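User: Continuing from earlier, I have the next pair ready.

Assistant: Great, send them over.

User: Here they are, in order.

Assistant: Folding the first of the pair now:
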Amino acid sequence: MHYKIGRRSLLLGFCALVTTYSIRRYINFTVDEEKTIREHILYRKEESWSQIKYNLTGNPVNHIAFIKVPKAASTTVQNIFLRYGDETNLIFALPRGRFGGGDKLTSQFFFPPPKNRRYDISCAHVIYNRADFSRALPTDTKYIGIVREPFSHFRSMIRFVHPKSVLDMPGENPVLEYLSRFDKYRNKTSISDIFCNKMARYFGFTDDLILKMDQPQIRKYLLKLDEEMDIILLFEYLDESIVLMRRILNWDLRHVLYGKLRVNKVEDNRLKFGTDVEKLHKSYSQLDYQLYDFFAQKLKEKIKDQPPDFYDELAYFRKTRMKYDNFCLFSISNDDNNASITFEGSAWNRPFVITWEHCKKLYIHCVTFLDMLIEKQPVGSPE
């Protein structure tokens, strides 16, 4: 009797695995479908993770260019690079200004690297220009970006910045009023608005492309970006994106664990984002939507093409990240600077210990972290 039940359970488990793999492999993901898939990915027992032999070989990637798009989880991802580079004594492109970036990756906006050195990592705010980046970074640099669903990105930007140009609009819906008057405020020879096509601008789309909306040229530039970027992360699939990134960088998994930073908490009741606002935003931010749709599809295709162990790693990553996050929040809130926690090894990481010092850097403000690195890193002479 027990033997029959065992066989039946085994058969059902195998069928579930096959079904999950088929769904994951052949459907075109949507947010709702992804939620369904996530409910099925934990198909390796938790206790078996530590039994898989550590299999990272080769050298980790130490040269990275990250296109830091504001309000797209980019500060969270930047913190990953800051912690890794700080621990491994890499050379950062450190911004001169207090706003944490510049228009170009040049000595006008960034402290120059030490003599006879190039930057190892660029992860501050800067507009992507391949020629500037190529001069400043080594030839084997991995290029990484991040995008977010454009209307969600717009909402987050407005709520975070609380712009006077929007809040000073009359009426009960200043966002709608602002977008309704957008043509009156937009300079026809340049793009002065900071909330429309924000992502496209960070990825190097020119004012000319934004104004003329020349579709063949836009497509040409998207294909150029696709060729030049090693991966563009997706805000809505952040964990999946980071696991893919870890594989590209050949890093130990502990280096890509993160804590969520700079999350909007204060709401303004006057800031409303209904259907009419969304339609207007889409009409003025067409490049952001094209950019997002293009690279969202690319990332989903990468996910579909991953071997089954990707989903094992994803489940392990989520569990480990939550454990790390909970430990740090508890130790910081209790001011316990003697606290530590040990994590077992797995196929994706060696055993490691997290202390109070690690936790402080997990949640440190990005400007404070950059200031700390400016004090620490030797600076060369301007070109």
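And the other member of the pair:
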Amino acid sequence: MDMDKIATGMWVESSEGLGRVLAVDKRDEMVLVEGLHEEQWAVHVSSVNQDAQLHPDCDKYY
């Protein structure tokens, strides 16, 4: 995913699972993500994907 399109608070899929972006490190091209169970992980921007349909705890598509 393009680094300029990643923002704090957005929901993303990553190699580690679904989560919300907590921080973006543009220098190292890393993203800190918090999962659904409050676990956190850092992943490279290349393994992050945004899906406009991601709405955790909701069974509806927008």
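Worth noting for the second one:
The mean pLDDT is 85. The beta strands are 11-14, 17-25, 30-35, 40-44, 48-50.
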